[in-house]
Amino acid sequence: MNKVEIFENERASGYNTFVETWIPNYSVFLNDLPKLFSKMNPKELLVVGCGTGNEIEQFVHRSERWLITGIDPSPEMVKQAIDRFQGYEHVTLMEGLVTAIDAEKKYSAATLLLVLHFLEDDGNKLNLLSNIAERLVSGATFVMLDITGDKQQIKQNLKILRLLLPDGLDEQQINHRLNRIENELFPISEERLAALCVTAGFEKPIRFFQSSIYMGWLMTKK
After folding, report:
1. How many of the other CB atoms lie within 10 Å of CB of 43?
2. How many angstroms separate the CA atoms of 73 and 82, rounded?
3. How confident is the model at residue 13 (pLDDT cuts 50, 70, 90)?
4. CATH 3.20.20.60 is held by the domain 9-220
5. Alpha carbon of 147 to those of 38, 44, 64, 94, 167: distances in Å?
6. Are 73 and 124 in contact (CB under 8 A)?
7. 20 pairs with which residues across the strands?
8. What stretch of H or E contains 42?
9. Cβ 81 vs Cβ 56: under 8 Å
C-alpha cells in the first residue's frame, strides 16, 4: 500500500500560495497542460493528487468538454476543490488513493503533479505509477511534474531556486524549506525515473519542462 503525504491545516489552506511562491513558472506549466492533451479522445482526464484543483481549473473552461476525475488523499484539499468546482457536472472529485478508482474504468489522459517525491523508492513510487497506467487506455498521454535529480543535481538546482524566489521571504523559512527538500523528500535521478515509468507500463518519458529542481515529463501509455 502506498504511503501518502496528507496536507492538513495551514499546508492545505495555504497550498496555492505556497506553490506559486516556490515553483518558478508554475502558472506557465499549468497553462500549457491542455495543449499537451489536445489530441486525446475521448476527453477523459484522471487527475491523481488533485489537491485544490489547480490543474483541473485549466480544463473546465475549455471549448472542448472534458470529463474529469480528481482524487486526493487529503480531505481538506478535496474540500477546497469541491467548493471550487461546484456546479461543474463534468468534474468528479474523490477523497482517497488512485486504487479506489475501478481499474475497469479507463482514461485517455492523466496527470500526477508534485506527488512522486513524497514517496520512497522502495516500491511505493512504482506502485503509484503502475496503478495510474492500469487505468489508462493504450496510447494515453500522462504528464508528471516532480522534484527530480540525483543528490548533486538537486544541490546545484536548489542554489538556483534560491535565486529565483520572490523578494521578501523570511530567510529562516527559506533555509528550512531548502533543507527539507534536500534531506526529507525522496527525489530520484532522471534515469531512475525513466526506468520506473517504463516498468510501470509507459514509453520512455520525455522531459519537456524544467524550472530549477522541478521537471515536467510527458509520456505515453504502452
Report:
1. 19
2. 14
3. very low
4. no
5. 25, 26, 31, 25, 22
6. no
7. none
8. none
9. yes
Residue 24 region, left (φ>0) first, then alpha (ψ -120 to 50), else beta?
beta
Helix (H) or strand (E) holding 166: none
Convert the pLDDT of each residue in 38-74 to its tens digit.
Answer: 999 999 999 999 999 999 999 998 888 999 999 999 9
Using DSSP's 3-state secondary structure scheme, residue 39 falls into coil
Q: All 3 cell numbers of residue 79?
A: 474540500
Cβ–Cβ under 8 Å, residues 77 and 15: yes
Taking the C-alpha atoms of residue 162 and residue 123, their distance in angstroms, rounded to an integer, is 32
**Domain-wise residue ranges, the chain:** 9-220
* Cα angle for residues 190, 214, 183 (degrees, 5° grid): 80
Task: Using alpha carbons, select from 42, 47, 50, 56 the residue that is nearest to residue 88.
Answer: 56
Four-CA torsion 151, 153, 155, 159, nearest 10 degrees: -170
Nearest-angstrom CA–CA distance, 128 and 71: 13
- In the chain, the amino acid numbered 156 is Q
Share of the chain residues as helix, strand and coil, in percent rounded to the nearest 5: 40, 25, 35
DSSP per-residue letters across 94-144: EES-GGGS-TTS-EEEEEEES-GGGS-TTTHHHHHHHHHHHTEEEEEEEEE
Which grid cell sits at 89? 457536472
Q: For the chain, give me the number of helices (H) and strands (E)?
A: 9, 7
Whole-number average pLDDT of the chain: 93
